[in-house]
Amino acid sequence: SLRKSPKCLWAYQMLNAGRKCFSVTIRRTLSKSSLPKTFDLDLVTANYEEQTRRAAISPRSEGRSSMDPLRLVLPPPNVTGRLHIGHALTVAIEDALARHHRVKGGEATWIPGMDHAGIATQSVVERFLWRNEKKTRREMGREELLKSCEQFASQNATVIRDQMARMGATLHWDSEYYTLDQRFSSAVTRAFVTLHRDGLISRSKRFVNWSPSICSSISDQEVEKVDLPTGGLLSLPSPDGKGRREVKLGVMHTIRYEMIYGNKSSFLLVATTRPETIFADVAIAIHPSHPRAGELKGRRVRNPLDGRELPIVVDEAVLADKGTGVLKLTPSHDRLDAEICGRHWEEIVRVGGQEVRERSCIDDYGRLRGGTPLDGIDRFDARATVLDQLRSIGALVGSIEDATTSVSLCSRTGDIIEPRQIHQWFLDCREMHAEAAAALKDGRLSIHPSTQGERLLDWFEYTEPWCLSRQLVWGHQIPAWNIEGTNEWIVDHSEEDARGRRGEEGVTLRRDEDVLDTWFSSGLVPLVCGGWMDKIVGSAPFVAPPLSLLETGTDIAGIWVARMVALTMRLSGGQLPFPRVILHGIVKDGQGRKMSKSVGNVIDPLDVIDGVSLAEMERRVGESALSEQEKATSLSSLRTRFPRGISRCGADVLRFVLLRHDVLSGEVSIDIGQLAEEGSRFCNKLWNLVAYAAQVRERVEKELKEGEEGEEHVMDAWLRSRLASSLRSADTHMENTEIHRAFGNIHAFVRSAVADVYVESTKSALWSGDTRRLVATSRTLDAVLAEFFRQLSVFMPFVSHFLHGQVADGKSLYEAPLSYSSSWIDPSLEGTVDEVLAVVDAARSLKEKLGVPKRSVFKGVLYSSRPPLAIAPLLPLISHLAKVSIDTVLPVDGPDTKDYEHTSVHGHDARLALKVEECHHEEMKRILDGQLTNAVNQKVLYLQKAAQFEEIARDVKCNWGKRAQNEKKREKARASAEKAEKEEERIRTMMRSLDERRRLP
């Protein structure tokens, strides 16, 4: 059928469940009938994979060699699940940067990657295994859990790749990285060994944030500080890992500690929110300002449960105004307690012996450990038991709510963090951070927006050692071997190397089972992608930064960006990983709420691209791992925000929704529904423009083939000038990472300059059949739209590629870069047309003031400081757009004309005069008469209603509630009547003014 229909552009068919389209494009100028009447999403996205692959290749360009290549990496999404709208924003921004560089003729390499996400992935897998197989981590072996994590990560990686492909991401998949692949494994080992030999990594005993639910230490950034809700009830993971439970928190318990060597009435009252740690008490502390400080210092009390003697120490760190002002010290479970004990160990050890230095009572799983009477009982269950025991012996004085209590939660599981002192591997970051901070301060490293630079400097001033150890199976195992039976550790690339370094036969080496913090491996992304492992050890690996820039979200500026800078500079001999950092804001919903599954506002990008029903969204929530309360909240939010689900919009509209925002602001609030409608209307606008271009082309198809020159009009030159100005402005905005301004620029160009002005200026030629004018119009419109779509493809690639083919004889927009010239820009001409368009606005405003319809035809005089010859060719445009026939152009200070209404032209040194003739007076009078009748009727109606409400309100039988309701209605009716009366007076004034003008000679 295609061979039989030479004017046909396309043929496509739907493919079963995949909804993919196969299209055949005939490289031929098309007739209007070959383009569907309305925007066709299936047609536009046909063969999207091939389109995206082609777009990732830089177009041929003579000047390309003069441009520096662009090289950037995709911040690796976690393989924990599907991408959400926040990831989509990152993809849209970075794809726009890469596409813009290519469309200018430069080379852009955008490297994709995935993050194995140690804690996050293992936590999700463990929850999945419990929900589906009723297995816990403790019941599974290391290898079985590792295999489950690998399978889970592989499945999600496939889904993520598909999501990014559907969004049109022009990634170079042949360069893909994965933070748990062999390249990263080698790089992680090399980095760890190097930093250890430099004396920056060491093993020591320090406090860490311990999450009992996942049995691992976590970073400060994975800890959430939250205030307790009213009532102090918090939902926490069950100790057996099989669900959740509610725990009462925020209660201050007062416990009596009896003095030793005194009478029974001599005691100290100690307030604590953690009575279960009583078995780990090593001392009691009071502030120097305590009334009995002098008397109590050096004395002892007895632990009420296990009878141990505890010394009393005096220390200024005790908060005298909190609780009873007396603090029990459990240094193994509290940082402040450990700090105080550090100043008093001599006296504490003298009483309790050396064993008190290691005394603790809570194990890895959050249970009371062996050696206590409550061995194996969960810490919160033990709390109730301890309180019962204290109550039974009269040692529990009372309990009160502590409204000031806040708790630290594990962001992965929601469990309460247990501070613990354990041996771990730590990285001393002080030197690294100082070097990185210097690069930021002296301008070698720039941050956009600049306000984020201060936040990064704050991070570099953080000098606490970085805990690298994680007690997981999923991740890079630490390259360190312990010599069995000793405290000695050997760090090297392999066990063989470790044995060689030891130099002894017969020793047993045991590798550290812990893995490294995920951020350590992801911090090496620039090095690995830059080929660090191919460099000779000890040599300067890079003569220039491996990446041109980094773009990511503000939420990981410190935890990822700062660490990449510090690690790369240290391991590369001072070279930055990238000279420029762009940080976009955190995505929130239309109500300004952070995206959260429990809130129900997390959106899958494919739900916008393909559409999704409310029932399907509800089904997903029902099958999720959320609690019943969270499910109810999520479902309520979905039903409110998406009562009819989400309509199918396509990738272009999704990108429209994302890139219309100022992405550099701190928060990017996205209303999916509202903006998706706007994006869809924009696609239809583009479709109609191309259909109009096809209609013009069809009218002069013969003349175009024969090469007729046509009649160039001033508006053709103006449109080319506006195109070049808009593209140049868009380029400047893109260079400044003002993506929304760049997009807004070309969006405004096509809506205003092309659709509202140029197309309107050509319709008279189309109606009259002015062939010579239409030939020039067709060539101008096709050339301008082709260049426009090349730039629009940066933001909306699929619709741009398809419509470009319609106006460019079927050619792909990726075959050549932008080809506009700055010589097209004519500021004087643009200024003249701007003035003419302002005259149109002034004419419409004056008509509205006179009370006549916009379609009313007037004669007019234009007063302008511009040369009449410059304006003369544009007078027909004023006539067409404003229905004002101007046959005279006078100097701006020229004499006023009689019988004309005058108005200024906003923003220009010009004014307009319209001649009001008898036909206008009659039309104005007819309109005003109708408006007056309506205003009078409205006034009478509302006065009658006010009287009715007044009568009801005065009725003695009317109860108070009904009286108040009718009095309110009466006042509202009176206000409406007053408004109608003012409108009546305004109209009568206009009618008097009209009569006066008609009587003037």
TrEMBL record:
<protein>
    <recommendedName>
        <fullName>valine--tRNA ligase</fullName>
        <ecNumber>6.1.1.9</ecNumber>
    </recommendedName>
</protein>
<dbReference type="GO" id="GO:0005829">
    <property type="term" value="C:cytosol"/>
</dbReference>
<keyword id="KW-0030">Aminoacyl-tRNA synthetase</keyword>
<feature type="domain" description="Aminoacyl-tRNA synthetase class Ia">
    <location>
        <begin position="66"/>
        <end position="664"/>
    </location>
</feature>
<dbReference type="InterPro" id="IPR001412">
    <property type="entry name" value="aa-tRNA-synth_I_CS"/>
</dbReference>
<keyword id="KW-0547">Nucleotide-binding</keyword>
<keyword id="KW-0067">ATP-binding</keyword>
<feature type="domain" description="Methionyl/Valyl/Leucyl/Isoleucyl-tRNA synthetase anticodon-binding">
    <location>
        <begin position="716"/>
        <end position="856"/>
    </location>
</feature>
<dbReference type="InterPro" id="IPR002300">
    <property type="entry name" value="aa-tRNA-synth_Ia"/>
</dbReference>
<dbReference type="InterPro" id="IPR002303">
    <property type="entry name" value="Valyl-tRNA_ligase"/>
</dbReference>
<comment type="similarity">
    <text>Belongs to the class-I aminoacyl-tRNA synthetase family.</text>
</comment>
<dbReference type="InterPro" id="IPR013155">
    <property type="entry name" value="M/V/L/I-tRNA-synth_anticd-bd"/>
</dbReference>
<dbReference type="GO" id="GO:0005524">
    <property type="term" value="F:ATP binding"/>
</dbReference>
<feature type="compositionally biased region" description="Basic and acidic residues">
    <location>
        <begin position="964"/>
        <end position="1001"/>
    </location>
</feature>
<keyword id="KW-0648">Protein biosynthesis</keyword>
<dbReference type="Pfam" id="PF00133">
    <property type="entry name" value="tRNA-synt_1"/>
</dbReference>
<dbReference type="GO" id="GO:0002161">
    <property type="term" value="F:aminoacyl-tRNA deacylase activity"/>
</dbReference>
<feature type="region of interest" description="Disordered">
    <location>
        <begin position="963"/>
        <end position="1001"/>
    </location>
</feature>
<dbReference type="Pfam" id="PF08264">
    <property type="entry name" value="Anticodon_1"/>
</dbReference>
<dbReference type="GO" id="GO:0006438">
    <property type="term" value="P:valyl-tRNA aminoacylation"/>
</dbReference>
<dbReference type="InterPro" id="IPR014729">
    <property type="entry name" value="Rossmann-like_a/b/a_fold"/>
</dbReference>
<keyword id="KW-0436">Ligase</keyword>
<dbReference type="InterPro" id="IPR009080">
    <property type="entry name" value="tRNAsynth_Ia_anticodon-bd"/>
</dbReference>
<dbReference type="InterPro" id="IPR009008">
    <property type="entry name" value="Val/Leu/Ile-tRNA-synth_edit"/>
</dbReference>
<dbReference type="GO" id="GO:0004832">
    <property type="term" value="F:valine-tRNA ligase activity"/>
</dbReference>
